[in-house]
Amino acid sequence: MLINERDLFVIGSKNIIIIDTKNKEIIKDIKLDFSGYLSCMYKLSDNIILAGFWNKYIGQLEYDDIKKNLKLISDIGQQYSSSKSELYGISSISIYNNSLIVSSYDDDFNKSSLIIHQLKKK
Q1: Which among 57, 55, 66, 52 is positioned nearest to 16, based on CA atoms?
Q2: Which secondary structure element, helix H or strand E, spans residue 27, and what is its range?
Q3: How many Å apart are CA 56 and CA 89, to the nearest integer?
C-alpha cells in the first residue's frame, strides 16, 4: 500500500516493511507487537491506517513519516474476542457510506461473516 507520495508499506505476518519509492530501498522493518498475524490494511489518510489481524483484532495506527514509526491510537479487538464469536480472522476492511465493513474468514465458508459498524460523525 502506498501510504504517501514516497513511502510504500509491504506487510508481512508480524511486520510492516517501509520502502522508499524514490530511492528504491528499504527504510525500516517495523515489528508489530500484537498477538496474531497481520492479514489486511486499509488506508484512511496519508498517516492513518486500519490493520486487521487473524486473531479477530482491528487496530487504528498512526504513521509518523518523519520518524518512520507506527503508533496504535485505537482498537476494536475486544468486540471479537468472545469464545461465542464465529469470527475467525479479519480478511478485509473497507469503508462505504460512512460504515466500516469488515469481512472475516473461516475455513468453512458457511461460518464466514460480514460485519458492518456505523462510523461516528465528528
Answers
A1: 52
A2: strand 25-31
A3: 5
- The phi-psi region of residue 80 (left if phi > 0; otherwise alpha if psi is between -120 and 50; otherwise beta) is alpha
Q: How far lies 68's CA from each of 6, 7, 63, 99, 107, in Å?
A: 12, 9, 7, 29, 36
pLDDT digits (tens, 9 = 90+) for 8-55: 999 988 899 999 999 999 999 999 877 678 888 999 888 999 988 877
Backbone phi and psi for residue 60, each to the nearest 5 degrees, phi listed first: -100, 120
Domains of the chain, first to last? 7-118 (2.130.10.10)
pLDDT (tens digit, 9 = 90+) per residue, 50-93?
988 877 788 899 999 999 999 999 887 644 444 444 445 778 88
Taking the C-alpha atoms of residue 104 and residue 70, their distance in angstroms, rounded to an integer, is: 24
List the one residue out of 17, 108, 11 whose CA is nearest residue 50.
11
The C-alpha cell that represents 91 in the structure block: 480478511
- Distance, CA of 93 to CA of 102 (rounded, Å): 5
| Rounded Cα distance, 38 and 24, in Å | 24
